[in-house]
Amino acid sequence: MSSLKGVPLxxxxxxxxxxxxxxxxxxxxxxxxxxxxxxxxxxSQKRRVLANLRRKENDIERYIFLIALQDRNExxxxxxxxxxxxxxxxLIYTPTVGQACREFAAIFRRPRGxxxxxxxxxCIREILDNWPRDDVRVIVVTDGERILGLGxxxxxxxxxxxxxxxxxxxxxxxxxxxxxxVMLDVGTNNHDLRNDPVYLGYPDPRLKGEAYQExxxxxxxxxxxKYPDALIQFEDFLTPNAYGLLNRYRxxxxxxxxxxxxxxAVTLSGVIAATRATGKALRDLKIxxxxxxxxxxxxxxxxxxALEAEGLSxxxxxERLWFVDLEGLVVKSRQDLAPHNxxxxxxxxxxxxxxxxxxxxPDVLIGATGAPGTFHQxxxxxxSQFNERPVIFALSNPTSRAECTAEEAYRWSDERAIFxxxxxxxxxxxxxxxxxxxxxxxxxxxxxxxxxxxxxxxxKSLPDELFLxxxxxxxxxxxxxxxxxxxxxxxxxxxxxxxxxxxxxVAERAFELGLNGHEKPDNLSKYITNMMYDxxxx
Length: 538
Description:
Blueprint: H1 6-10, H2 23-28, H3 42-55, H4 59-72, H5 74-83, H6 85-92, H7 96-102, E1 114-116, H8 124-128, E2 138-142, H9 158-172, E3 179-184, H10 191-194, H11 209-226, E4 231-234, H12 239-249, E5 255-257, H13 258-278, E6 287-290, H14 294-309, H15 314-318, E7 321-325, E8 328-329, H16 353-360, E9 364-367, H17 377-386, E10 391-394, H18 406-412, E11 418-421, E12 428-429, E13 435-436, E14 439-440, H19 447-457, H20 464-476, H21 480-484, H22 495-512, H23 524-531
Parallel strand pairs: 1-3, 2-3, 2-4, 4-5, 6-7, 6-9, 9-10, 10-11, 11-14
Antiparallel strand pairs: 7-8, 12-13
């Protein structure tokens, strides 16, 4: 810390202690006269933060307050987030991050993250040297075309990359200095944004085709050259690009797509946990998806892998999985299916959603539509006719886009539904005083631990096998008390322990598969614990 003194030290968010500097530190670091007299420790500062946070009138103001704290004192920000994650995570990520992205330009205060535009072609590697940290281990990159369920938000999507990395840090202990949020600002087809004088992004229509691919190729090569050990997470790309980029790079780079693979792992984990509540074996389940985009088919792909591991043939595994999109049931006779839908096109008569429910009688219903209210009363009632304990996943984010609410799922099923969602819902109190805690199938349960495990093994790639491992590790963390409360996931307050368990399982499996880039430590669990950043003043 001796390299910085006085005001520059106080203004460095990574090194400041603010009012926690001791008397001798104030003398040695030229801080006398620059701080109030009283010395307050980290706990006292945290209490002040919480008091001010709770005084704010709405969630977007709370988001702005927290980002400002992150900009001026990272240690205090992450200590507060970790210790109060159930309260604060919904403010820095879903659901509040959706509104924050919509208003990103309007609430912009201080630059954070790295922006790449078409004007940077040919010099991406050169400008990466402008980033002040050389030991980057995790990169989250988006092009902003499909932010949550909100569509094309252009450069405003940087809020997603920033938010995801905050969760890597808080949930899995990746050090803040090792994180890089990236916005591939290739323009936007959102006319309102392009015509908005406040908008900060590249003002042209989106780059497409070969020009788009060349820019992404250049970024990937530049990132590998500059940060050879970094994990790259793709986030909120439109479905064709999401699959295209994943398939293009997954065997050559340490990378994954969280919307496809992370969502798949957390949802599969919930379904595995649900089998303990329903008494139905995983291999016997029929699962229906409303929505057939990258998230839904990503879940389907991993579930097919899980069913094959249960002894089913690849064909039999896929025959347990059914998809419904805007045009109805995904069947072989349709001529409008995308390549990622074809493995799930079955021999069956065309049908709408309700007809498909009647015909298939699924045990589990999963929504990944971005369309609120699509699990209406008749849907939940039908699921309740087929199942004593209907399993309902309303995964669309943010909360306003959920296919149904927790209270609706419980009420329309005569309180028999097992419900999970992508965004948080408050506990529901029944007439007899029974309380249900809806499970939140938040990707934050898996992607931080997967990333930590990949780094612990210095993995060369992330095959689906590792996401299956992560799903089982998360499901094993669900207690009987969680299930009795109606939750298919652990409490968020346990998230760092969950991430450690997932990281250990993923790293162990990476070593078994020969994907590792170094020798296995004698005590892998302790090695991972020592990797995890724990914010405190030194």
